[in-house]
Amino acid sequence: xxxxxxxxxxxxxxxxxxxxxxxxxxxxxxxxxxxxxxxxxxxxxxxxxxxxxxxxxxxxxxxxxxxxxxxxxxxxxxxxxxxxxxxxxxxxxxxxxxxxxxxxxxxxxxxxxxxxxxxxxxxxxxxxxxxxxxxxxxxxxxxxxxxxxxxxxxxxxxxxxxxxxxxxxxxxxxxxxxxxxxxxxxxxxxxxxxxxxxxxxxxxxxxxxxxxxxxxxxxxxxxxxxxxxxxxxxxxxxxxxxxxxxxxxxxxxxxxxxxxxxxxxxxxxxxxxxxxxxxxxxxxxxxxxxxxxxxxxxxxxxxxxxxxxxxxxxxxxxxxxxxxxxxxxxxxxxxxxxxxxxxxxxxxxxxxxxxxxxxxxxxxxxxxxxxxxxxxxxxxxxxxxxxxxx
Length: 390
Fold this sequence. Notes:
This protein is of the alpha/beta class. Helix content is 38%, strand content 18%.
């Protein structure tokens, strides 16, 4: 959003895929709560001083809509999350109007059971929904963010749902963020459309817990010249993501990013693997445990064990808001292609960039400077190749 236009006039759309899920509900409720001053912007990197002059759209300017295949209204979903301790008590009531407004903008997703529409028809229908949303709210732009449950890798020629939505985003002229491990824009069939769209995009698979810790610890071992012999992990989680990751194919897609971080930061892939167990009783909460075997001076064998217990939706929601604002601003600035500087947020970042969290944060800080609001005597942000922008 241009700094010369009031946020109440220039509004930016956030179109969520999986718009009635836990993450999406927390995004909408959280944005309303922070905007109203009910809660501080904890977890929002874009609300830190680093981004003070970067021209990001204000949280109050964001308008929400999306696609989903379920029909549970957002206010009801928010009440369930509050009962489970994910949202603060009383918040669903306090932001009920904002939840209801967003829920009214959620359109049926697909393909649904028995759906006879082919890929082209579904892409057109989804793109029409997004464009209608933009027109009715007179939005300056909209960003499409995939926060749906993880899907297995595609088989056959049909596009998976995540790729149908990604194609619709491009067709609608919208930047795209894939916060999941699902295929999205990475399907080969979308390469021509992606190349011709000239839009910024980011992904994939949001880095919220276990992998966030790995991207810090991996470099520590490498920088201290400690030899990691094995690195094994276990995830216990419930909710929709736990159910979807009970599918071995979906779990394999999720684990690929976790393992890649270790290989990139350590220089080699250690022994061990990650196991994901669906525990429905945990709901939206998850526990991630890592067992790291390493050698010190003179071959002394040692072990580091870590336990991460967190609420997935609460960890993910501020990152989704960050990414929507950053990608919208990049679009306004004329940038296109993979936003590699946003690797800080992902397990498997688009474009080329470092894997260590500290280096990714430095790249993000450079991105904040690049997006700063134009001032007299300073050059405006400009588009360029991925290498030039790094």
